[in-house]
Specification:
14% of the residues lie in helices and 45% in strands. With 508 residues, it is mainly β. The chain starts with a helix and ends with a strand. Mean pLDDT is 78; it is low at 24-67, 365-375, 389-396 and 473-477.
Length: 508
């Protein structure tokens, strides 16, 4: 009896050991109908109408999942650029489109490929690949849209080629007819100017799924080679031909540009990205469609700090300025949100005049999903400095002086080259300064330096010159004693901070 009990105990221990070993080698999928995916990604349907009240942590998680996980492997010499996840064949299993390029051939085009779940092998596999017109990976934007109004999603790839032209390649969903050729190319446009899809309002019947909608029209803008003015353009309209199943050119219109001194224009549009960066280095206000200046929406381009600030309705977004690519009429910029680093934004900036630019935004598809990005940033912008000149607030003061003042802050010395020194309590502060005029008020700005670098505009010190004794009334360099009051400059104008006044007494 005792031997039987010992044998049974040994058998139990032996079976437990086998079970532990099996679990260690696992895990196994016990559901034969549908294997569990290793990474669950979300379906991306880019739409400006979608509103998602998601917190920033969850937003970044979704962005990471959808942007970086491939459902199948690429070749060793292929590098993924972007992905889209969507159930293209309506079988309740998510498919994937990936944009990629060869790692070893910088001249090769950006391609897209299609991954779908194979019922026979019970795994995702690669079915199809096709090149696009884009060749520069940093400019590529990949998204989906019901372009034709028939609810068969089109895949749209925009970017630039090595000649500095804008490109747009469009593929129509054909997966129900041929899984091995799931998408048909219906448009491939290359232009030295911008290319845009003209989205028009579709009927209520379309929105309710009762009827189809009209195909959207595509417009491309390029240089008018028959004109001597570099800013004269042509507009080419492309419409969808139902019989041929492709987009065809339907109309060409000529658009006269601003008359600008051609030598200056050639300098700005020379193809040197740094030159155009300096041109847009400023604050720009949005111009509404009726021509009025919208001071609640503006952009600030800061090439030195490599930042682009978007401000609208007291909401500020800061993007890191990553890459600049010259175009015929301006600059194509790729940027990245500093808070949610997986969110990318493409800016196509074109010069309209010396004081105006036209902007078109192409958000990363994940941005469209998460924050409901729309085309609200598209349109014309006017330089903030030009608004001051047009309103009669031209500078009538000299920006720099050569003088020394004593004050409660310490001894302040201005140099004629725009630099200043402030000595106080044995410490020395250096920086840049400027006298300027806004709304008929004389102002002084001090921008201190730290570690040899100027602080950002957020840390600048601006003072209103309340009183000044002058040798010549209109000559800032000969100001004697000054009385300063700290202020702040904003979109609504000059705001007094109601701090105590500072008296500057001329020492020499």
């Amino acid at each position: 009896m005792m031997k039987k009990r010992i044998s049974a105990t040994a058998a139990v221990f032996f079976l437990c050991a086998i079970g532990i070993a099996v679990l260690a080698v696992g895990p196994f999928n016990f559901n034969n109908e549908k294997p569990q995916e290793r990474h669950r990604t979300r379906i991306i349907v880019p739409s400006a109408e979608d509103g998602f009240g998601l917190d920033s942590v969850f937003m970044e998680q979704i962005a990471y999942e959808d942007s970086y996980i491939l459902k199948a492997f690429l070749s060793d010499d292929e590098h993924a650029i972007s992905v889209l996840n969507y159930d293209f064949d309506n079988n309740a299993i998510e498919d994937q489109i990936a944009a990629y390029r060869s790692q070893y051939d910088s001249e090769s085009p950006v391609c897209i490929t299609f991954f779908a779940f194979d019922e026979r092998t019970r795994a995702y596999r690669r079915y199809w690949s096709e090149p696009t017109a884009a060749t520069m990976p940093g400019t590529v934007s990949l998204y989906m849209q019901d372009l034709l109004g028939d609810r068969s999603i089109c895949v749209i790839v925009t970017g630039m080629n090595n000649e500095g032209e804008h490109t747009m390649t469009i593929f129509h969903n054909n997966i129900q007819e041929d899984r091995n050729r799931p998408f048909a190319k219906i448009a491939e446009i290359q232009m030295d100017g911008s290319i845009t899809i003209q989205e028009t309002e579709r009927t209520a019947a379309y929105r309710q799924g009762i009827a189809g909608g009209q195909p959207f029209v595509i417009t491309a803008y390029g240089r008018d080679i028959e004109s001597e003015n570099l800013l004269d353009r042509i507009e080419i309209t492309y419409e969808y031909n139902q019989l041929k199943g492709i987009y065809e050119r339907s109309k060409i219109s000529r658009i006269p540009g601003s008359q600008i001194e051609q030598r200056r224009l050639r300098e700005i549009l020379s193809g040197n990205a740094k030159v155009f960066e300096e041109f847009i280095n400023d604050l720009w206000y949005h111009v509404d469609p009726d021509g009025t200046i919208n001071r609640s929406q503006y952009l600030y381009f800061d090439p030195a700090m490599r930042e682009i600030i978007f401000y609208e309705d007291e909401t500020q977004q800061i993007f890191t300025w990553q890459h600049s690519n010259s175009t015929r009429y301006g600059l194509y910029i790729s940027s990245q949100n500093i808070s949610v680093t997986t969110l990318r934004r493409m800016l196509d900036i074109e010069m309209e005049s010396l004081d105006s630019i036209r902007l078109r935004i192409s958000d990363d598809v994940t941005v469209k999903l998460i924050i409901g990005a729309s085309a609200s940033w598209d349109g014309m912008y006017r330089r903030a400095g030009s608004l001051a000149r047009s309103s009669g607030t031209e500078r009538t003061v000299q920006p720099y002086t050569d003088a020394v003042y004593d004050s409660s802050m310490g001894r302040l010395q201005f140099h004629a080259n725009g630099e200043y020194d402030l000595s106080s309590g044995g410490s020395l502060t250096n920086g840049r300064y400027v006298f300027f005029r806004v709304d008929d008020r004389d102002l002084l700005e001090l921008r201190p330096e730290h570690n040899g670098k100027n602080e950002s505009t957020e840390n600048r010190l601006i003072y209103h010159i309340v009183n000044a004794n002058r040798i010549e009334d209109d000559d800032i360099p000969k100001l004697q004693n000054l009385s300063l009051s700290r202020v702040r400059l904003g979109t609504t104008g000059i705001q007094d901070l109601h701090e105590g006044q500072i008296l500057l007494t001329r020492a020499r």
